[in-house]
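During the first year of the project, the team set up a workflow for recording each protein of interest as an amino acid sequence followed immediately by a discrete structure-token representation. This format lets reviewers and collaborators read both layers of information side by side without switching files. As required by the reporting guidelines, we include two representative entries from the current panel. The first entry is reproduced here exactly as it appears in our internal archive.
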Amino acid sequence: MPQKIRAASSVHLLALLPHVVGYTPRESLLLVPLVGGATCGALRIDLPRPGEVEQVAATAIGHVLRLPDVEAVVAVVYTDGPVRDGTGVVHEDLVAAVADRADACGLRVVDELCVGSDGWAPYATGDVGALSDIAAADPEPDRPVARAQDDGIALPPAEDGDRKCVARHLGALAALPQDAFRRHTGGARPAASDREIDAELAAFDDDPYAYFAAPAEEAGKTSAARAAAWMWILRSPALRDVVLTLWAGTVDEATRACAWQRQWLDGEADQPDFPVRLAGEGPRPRLDRLRRAREFVRELAARAPRTHVGVCLAVCAWLSWATGNATHAAAYAARAIEVDPAGTLPRLIAGMTNEGILPAWAYDARGAAFGLPPARLAAPETAAAR
């Protein structure tokens, strides 16, 4: 859900924003929409290059206006350089363009602020305050936030011995006569030539949806055999989509998606007559589930051989996009395409982030929230979100 906050002053708002979005923005414009007098999420935009100011301002305000009942907006520029240049506060042209677009759409701009390497300032006066003012107003000084919007993309470390063990288990799975989706939907269920993998297959066969749900519901150590089983599952595009549907929705939704996938593979499916989670449709998912699932799949990607790392990175990309984190989504998608140029899911995600397309639930919790922290529309060929 969007995090609504009330700030007593501009400096208190600047102290709160890194906690709202989860990081300290760099070289960014942050638009903070106001609903009922409280902030409701944030939209982060890369500072535009020359010639892109008007386009970025128009696109950003367009996205803000998709938030139901939005009344006003606060504009905050974050720059790595000084707050002032020779003529005034930096990036005044961008802030003015945002204000003009907002005014034309009947949206009030209630504050315009800049944070730089040497302080902060309101655009209205240009008076520079100390960064220590912001630090002193921090309501949670002991709560860490990422240093920048692209922190946390690097995969966790993995040991060579563990990777070899995972690869050995994958060899046993590769020898099975059919992929994970066909096994799940009624195909033959032979044992593998690997006792640990057979235990995973037994759990998979006995209660598949409980098996699929576990990574989104609980964090914990994943054995090499279970990691290999999950790489095998995610490498089946049809079953991968069923799993993503479950992580974003319910067992009923996943069951319906599975039935449609089976019909589609048999050449019998019409267009889906239900919300397609993969496309960002339906009510807003629980972010804690998606984030746990993403950490799980990031670990898989770190442990995967090259044959399976591409699909793991693609799933990381989708999970990032689904939580409104298109900066990470674009990075994971690019890495997945580099590893596996033929992959369709990472190309789909790269296209959506490039076009600034966010899930419908990023604007409205009912599925039509902007409040996912935060959407990023970079200018203009890399439009992507926190």
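The second entry, processed by the same pipeline in the following quarter, appears below.
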Amino acid sequence: MKTLKTWEKAAVAASMALLLGACSHTHSPEKTASAGEAPECPECDARLEALKSKEAMLAEKERALQARAEELAKQKSAAPAPAAVATDDGHMLPPNAKPGECYARVWVPPKYKTITEKVVKKEASSRIEVIPAKYRTVTKRVLVKEAHEKLKVVPATYKWVEERVLVRPAGEKIVTVPAKYETITEKVLVKPAYTTWKKGTGPIQRIDEATGEIMCLVEIPATYKTVTRRVLKSPATTKKVPIPAVYKTVRKRVVDKPEHTVKVKVPAKYKTVTVKELVTPAQTKTIEIPAVYTTVTRKEKVSDGHMEWRSILCKTNMTRGKVAEIQRALKAKGFDPGPIDGVIGSQTMAAVNAFQRKNNLPVDKYLNIETVKALGVSPI
């Protein structure tokens, strides 16, 4: 990083020298009449100020990186020696201890937190990229001959037709109508009606007083005879009867459509050719190049290391039954302490340390009271 910053400073210094040289060459002898007067170049002054500002910014970044490097070096140096914790009487003993309690003096290492920062490695810039023109191959139809019209002779068409020809004209003739008779039936009187006496019986009949016989006067109806005879209904006459004309059907060939001309459209003729067609013209594009960052990780101390007295279980306040209870509690929480034998062995301590790490408890080589309480076991 220091080599990169030194190179950037050298580049800035070279740019300043070139800029000053370019400004001195751009002035004519008339404008630089006297050697004591500084050449006037507002554009050069602005560029010079910009370069000076950039140089100052680079120097500031270099100082910040140097300070961070020194801070990291201090943090990596040896940790301070453990500080002694003395009681009121000046002895190195646990304070406020009660009878039957055991304590272990342990070193609590310093605590650090990791801080990650992003530092600019390369400033953002831009570049111009030339995008070439794009073409595509297309198929086009090119007109070879335009559309036009031409005359076409259509020959005559014929058809067969039937025609009725008069053979004999219509006329009339006189016909005799015979007389008409009708038969009639008549009743002719043969014998007129009359009355006569006939013998009879009954109280209403006349009784001849002389003879004592009964005689009845009976009416005899008239007698008729049916006679059939022909009677003239209409006398014989004459009448005129029309005679229809006589025709004959003949078949002949006649012109259906006479010969004529029609206009026929002749379509245009095309030819298919392959050509290149411009899709997008050539153009330039400014591509923004983002700044490049690098991640710097450093550790910052949160608290210093120190010595402390930690309440533990030892031979004085620990029984095999209590150790077996702790082993069962470890097994119930998923940490294998080995055989439940009431003895604190390497496998039991490995399970204790695993439980401590998982529950963010102090990890040491002792069975401390805080861990025992976290397992749900009474330390007493």
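For the second entry, the following points were noted during internal review. Residues 1-8, 17-39, 78-91 have pLDDT under 50 and may be disordered. Helices lie at 2-26, 42-76, 320-332, 346-358, 369-374. Both points are flagged for discussion at the upcoming steering committee meeting.
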